[in-house]
Amino acid sequence: MRKIVLATLVLVLVLALSSSAMEMRKRIAVSELEDKAGSSYNVGTGLADVLTTALFNCGKFQVFEREQLAAVMEEQALGTTGLVTPQTAPEIGKLLGVQAIVYGAVTEFSTQKDEVGLGTFMGGIGFSRVTARVGLNIRIIDTVTGEIIFSHEATGEESETGGILMVPGMVIGKGSEWDNTLEGKAARQAIDEIVNAIIIKMKDVPWTGAVVKADEEKVYINAGMDSGIETGMEFRVYQKGEDLIDPVTGISLGAEETLIGTVQVMEVKEKYAICRAIAGGGFSAEDIVRENPFH
Predict the structure, then answer these.
(1) How many angstroms separate the Cα of 99 from the Cα of each of 72, 75, 96, 205, 232?
(2) pTM of the full predicted structure?
(3) Where is the chain membrane-spanning (predicted)?
């Protein structure tokens, strides 16, 4: 009986390790956040960088930095404000090669000082209690379909007696000085909640990539070891139809997709993989690549 139980436990462990090893990292980018808090600090840029670092450190995603996204937007003149919109996200995703873009706003970045007295029996002694609040409203847009697939609000609050506050010249997200401020601690609470929510939501979103180029023998896709691709994996390939644009809002409503075949990974490089066709054909650049649910 013990041998059967032990064998079962070993099998479960092997399957768990295998599943973990084959988990593919989805490619996402973080946009500069809009400052709706009216802060005197550069909170939109600073907190976007903190969020980018937190997403990278969780190990679940291949994260593109805000500067990479900004460079693409500037080069292609995709927005004068530097902020991602549902209208510009699909084109940015195609140019940058990301599956989803995180964008949104800093809704609160405030501090409040309360004077607290201990009464006359203590000689009228008083002290100051300082509270910092940081609020974020984050959305994720699918760059393939143009749909907003996730929205989450989070607020962090940190309160201390004689707590350390930000001072002019301090850069958000840089160094232990920032980490030790009340604003830094409150921001970390909000961002940790956002990251956990993104991890949970993105588990339900199938991994998506694209064909870079194809010939009669090989199909190159835009993901490699850095995305968790392994030899032997199979992917379905879809041909994307014309984008359907809402004439009122200008937002993409998605596009029809046609399954044209299946490919199997033969060789994996750092940033791309080489596949062979095992079903169908007629593959070309920008075709959509998705996980094969039956493999």
Answers:
(1) 15, 20, 9, 10, 22
(2) 0.77
(3) none
